[in-house]
Design goal:
The structure is a homodimer.
Chain A: E1 12-17, E2 21-27, E3 33-40, H1 47-64, E4 75-79, E5 82-84, E6 89-91, E7 102-103, H2 105-113, E8 117-121, H3 122-133, E9 142-147, E10 151-157, E11 160-161, H4 191-195, H5 197-209, H6 216-222, H7 230-238, H8 242-266, E12 270-274, H9 275-294, E13 305-308, H10 315-322
Parallel strand pairs in A: 1-4, 4-8, 9-12, 12-13
Antiparallel strand pairs in A: 1-2, 2-3, 5-6, 6-7, 9-10, 10-11
Chain lengths: ~325, ~325
C-alpha cells in the first residue's frame, strides 16, 4: 500500500563528531535508531574535509534507514570546540585537523546534506540525551562528567541546562593541584591534566622516554592504533601494567576530587559518568570514582547518586538528533 | 504631634552571629540602619548563653533606634553552622561554644525578644543583601566568596539563590590540592585549609612551634586578642612578617584557584569577595585574587567581574534583616 506524504514518518539525523570517530544515526519520532554508520574522523586536512566525511557518514546512515538525508526533518551535530549554536559555527576544535579558526559547519553541512543542520556542544548534547531519554530524568539537578580524550562536563540545574555565559560545565578544568601537572588547555593542575586520555598518553610517553617500562606501546600496535585509545588503556590495566595502573588510579582520584568539588559547590542530586573511558571502564570504575569523591565530600552533605550514562556510545548522536526541533 | 498606631514605621531587626562578634541592627523599610550594637560572642557556655547574648545585643540596638524588640516586625539571624530555616534550628556550629548539636534558636530567641525570629545561613544571607541592596544586583549570576574564619560561599544563578539540596555554596571545600593540607572540615586539600583564618592560625602556630620566627603572637598580644584576627594578620603583613606573608600569599592562591574552578564550572558574570579578611584586606587583595584566578581560568572563558562586597561588615546584619518578611 502506498503511503501519502502526510503519513511519512518524521525522521531526524544525529551526528556525534569526535576526535577519533564520526557516529551518525537516523531516528524516528520515538528516538528509535533506524540506521547508523561510523567513520574515522579525518586526521589531516581541515574543517571542509571533516564536513565532507560527516556528510558521507550521515548519508550511509540514511541509506541504512531506507531514506535520504534530504528527506530528514533535519540533522543535529554534537561537536567539540567552541560552539555558537545560534550562528551554527564551531571554532577552536583542537582535536580536529586544521580547525583552530571558526567554521560555519551548520551552513556547509546543510548544503551537502540538503537539509537543516543544528549544532551543539558534544558533551552538553550527550547529557541532554541522558536527561531526556535515560533514567536521569528523575533528578532535578545533576552534573555530567565525560571522561574521554579530554574531560568534559555539563550541568542540569532546576531541570534545565545551565550554560552560564555560554561556557559552563568545564569540570575538566577545575583545579585539583595548584602548581600541578601541565594540562592540554595551557593551565596547570586541572582535572583533565590527570584524567584526560590525551594528557595521560603524553605523560605515559614521557615516562617511557625516561626509561619507564610499560606495555602501552605494544598494546597500541597490536590493536593497530596510533594513540592510546580507551581499549589500549583497558587492556594495559587488565595485564597489570604498572604505569597504566598508576595513571588510571591518578585519573580516578582526579575525577573524584573534581566531581566532589562540584558537588560541594552545587549540592546536586546526581553525577553521571560518561565519555569513552567512562563507558569502557564501566560500573566498576563508577564505583571507584564514587569512593574517590567520598574523601572530599563536605561533611553534612549527602552523597549524590553516581551513575554510569545509560545510552552508552550512542548518547552523543541521540542527543544531537534532539537538537532538531520544529 | 502624636502618631497613630497605623503611622508607626515598620522596623526590622537583623543579627549577624559570628564566631568572634554578634552584630545587631534595626532598620526601617528602606533598609536604613536606625540603631546598632556589637558584643563579643561568648567563648564558653552553650547555645542558650549565645542566645542570651544575642538578645542583649539586639535590645541595645533597638534602644538605640528608640524602640523595643517587641515592637519590631521581626528579627532575622544569619548564623554559621547547619541552618534549617523552616524549623528555625541551627546545628553543628563548630565555631560557637558547645554548639555541636541542634538548638531551636528561632523559638528560644523569639521568647527573649518577644517577636518573630527567622534564621538563615550567614554567608547566604550576606550575599542576599549584596544582591538585593548593592551594585551586584545588575548581574544575572554570581558567586560570593567569603574569606574569614572559614571560607564560605553562595551562589546566585539566573537571579535566584541556588541552594541545591540545601547545602550548596561550599566554595571553601572545593579541592585544590589532592592529598594536601588538613582542613578544619576533616578533609584534605580544601581551599579553606589554605585560606581560612582558623586553618592559617593553626598552621602558623605549628610552624612557630617548630622554631619558625614570626611577629604574629606578639601582635596578637598587643591587640589584646586570643586569636590571630584579621587585624593581626593585616598588621603582620604590613610589618613584612615572612611567615604571615607566606600564608596570606598561599591563601590568595587558594582563593584564586577555587574561584576560578567555580567559574570554569558555572561561567558566572561576577565573583564577590567578602568576609572578615576580605573586607580587611580590601581592594588591593581583590585585585590579587583576580590575578590568581586568571592563571586557572579556562581559555575561551571571559573573566568575570571580581569585586569587593559593597556593604562591608554590615552586610550580614542587613541580609539577616531581609529574612523578616510579612
Amino acid at each position: 500500500m502506498m503511503s501519502t506524504t502526510q503519513e511519512q514518518p518524521v525522521l531526524r539525523g544525529g551526528i556525534d563528531l569526535g576526535g577519533t570517530k564520526i557516529e551518525a544515526i537516523v531516528v524516528d519520532a520515538a528516538n528509535q535508531v533506524l540506521g547508523s554508520a561510523r567513520h574515522p574522523t579525518p586526521t589531516s586536512g581541515g574543517p571542509a574535509d571533516v564536513a565532507a566525511e560527516m556528510a558521507a557518514t550521515m548519508k550511509e546512515a540514511a541509506a541504512g534507514a531506507g531514506t535520504s538525508t534530504a528527506a530528514l526533518r533535519g540533522v543535529g551535530v554534537g561537536s567539540p570546540g567552541s560552539v555558537d549554536a545560534a550562528a551554527g559555527t564551531i571554532s577552536s576544535a583542537g582535536n580536529l585537523p586544521g580547525w583552530e579558526g571558526s567554521y560555519a559547519l551548520a551552513a556547509e553541512l546543510g548544503k551537502l546534506l540538503e537539509t537543516r543542520v543544528a549544532v551543539g556542544n558534544d558533551v552538553q548534547v550527550a547529557i541532554g540525551a541522558e536527561y531526556a531519554l535515560g533514567p536521569a530524568k528523575r533528578y532535578n539537578s545533576l552534573i555530567g562528567v565525560f571522561w574521554g580524550t579530554g574531560v568534559g562536563g555539563g550541568l542540569i540545574l532546576d531541570r534545565k541546562p545551565w550554560r552560564g555565559r555560554g561556557g559552563a560545565g568545564e569540570i575538566g578544568h577545575m583545579v585539583i593541584h595548584v602548581g600541578g601537572r601541565h594540562c592540554p588547555c595551557g593551565n596547570e593542575g586541572c582535572v583533565e591534566a590527570y584524567a584526560g586520555r590525551a594528557a595521560m598518553e603524553a605523560h605515559a610517553r614521557h615516562e617511557m622516554e625516561q626509561g619507564r617500562k610499560s606495555h602501552l606501546l605494544k598494546l597500541m600496535e597490536e590493536k593497530q592504533r596510533v594513540r592510546f585509545t580507551s581499549a589500549v588503556w583497558a587492556a594495559a590495566v587488565d595485564r597489570g601494567d604498572e604505569l597504566a595502573i598508576e595513571l588510571i588510579d591518578g585519573a580516578v582520584a582526579a575525577l573524584g576530587a573534581g566531581a566532589a568539588s562540584a558537588v560541594n559547590l552545587l549540592d546536586v542530586e546526581a553525577v553521571l559518568i560518561g565519555g569513552g573511558l567512562g563507558v569502557r571502564f564501566g560500573e566498576e570504575y563508577v564505583k571507584r570514582i564514587r569512593e574517590a569523591m567520598e574523601k572530599h565530600l563536605f561533611r553534612g552533605h549527602t552523597m549524590p547518586d553516581v551513575q554510569l550514562v545509560s545510552l552508552g556510545d550512542l548518547g552523543g548522536a541521540l542527543g544531537a538528533a534532539l537538537l532538531v526541533v520544529d
